[in-house]
């Protein structure tokens, strides 16, 4: 009786393991089927876009297509130049920010050393408080700079993609599936540039407000650093 019970338990355990394996295999098959369906839908959409582009291209002369491509090339070059200027400006602002923070730390250290003889406990508390505040502001500024840098990189990547697409369109204008959306991409680049400029303005507004609060509320009647 005991042997038959153990055998039943072993059989049940093996069945559970097989069911688990079957479930895993079924999940894998479902994922593969979903991926295949997405690919089929993408191919259908691609074919529809090619047909629509061919219908439009039949009614437009080749010279018009070439002129529009040249105009978009000019706009892409302008966007690339703006991206370079933005990158240079961002690097300059980061260098200036590092210098300002270095001067600030130097002034704080001197002030703490001058007050060290009065009350070491207060000095330690002030040092910890200002260190935490400085680190918080530095993290915010670095986060803003990272967002701007990513926006510039994304914008440049889109510009490179558009250049590649336009080159393909110059060779085979009737087979390019994304020609009708080129103007939309150009507008997206301009919008990204505007967002970067807004973030840059926010960065320096935050820095200016932070310097005013740090100098006015933390030190009281103590003489402010020269750069405040």
Automatic annotation (TrEMBL):
- Keyword list, A-Z: Coiled coil, Cytoplasm
Gene Ontology BP terms: response to wounding
Q: Which residues form a coiled coil?
A: 36-103
Which InterPro entries does its entry note? Answer: SIKE
Q: Which domain of life is it from?
A: Eukaryota
Give a GO cellular-component term: cytoplasm
Indicate where this protein resides in the cell.
Cytoplasm
- Which family does the record claim for this protein? Belongs to the SIKE family.
This chain's protein is named: FGFR1 oncogene partner 2
Please name the taxonomic classification of the source.
Eukaryota, Metazoa, Chordata, Craniata, Vertebrata
């Amino acid at each position: 009786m005991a042997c038959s019970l153990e055998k039943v338990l072993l059989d049940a355990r093996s069945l559970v393991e097989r069911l688990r394996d079957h479930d895993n295999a079924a999940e894998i098959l479902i994922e593969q089927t979903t991926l295949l369906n997405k690919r089929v839908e993408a191919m259908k959409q691609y074919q529809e876009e090619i047909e629509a582009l061919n219908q439009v291209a039949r009614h437009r002369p080749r010279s018009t297509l070439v002129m529009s491509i040249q105009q978009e090339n000019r706009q892409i070059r302008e966007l690339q130049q703006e991206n370079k200027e933005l990158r240079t400006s961002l690097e300059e602002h980061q260098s200036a920010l590092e210098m300002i923070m270095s001067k600030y730390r130097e002034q704080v250290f001197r002030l703490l050393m001058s007050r060290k003889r009065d009350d070491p406990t207060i000095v330690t508390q002030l040092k910890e408080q200002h260190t935490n505040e400085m680190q918080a502001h530095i993290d915010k500024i670095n986060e803003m700079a990272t967002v701007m840098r990513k926006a510039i990189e994304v914008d440049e990547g889109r510009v490179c993609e558009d250049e590649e697409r336009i080159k393909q369109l110059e060779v085979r204008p009737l087979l390019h599936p994304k020609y009708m959306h080129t103007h939309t991409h150009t507008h997206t680049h301009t919008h990204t540039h505007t967002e970067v400029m807004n973030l840059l303005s926010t960065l320096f507004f935050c820095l200016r407000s932070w310097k005013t609060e740090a100098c006015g509320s933390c030190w009281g009647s103590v003489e402010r650093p020269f750069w405040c």
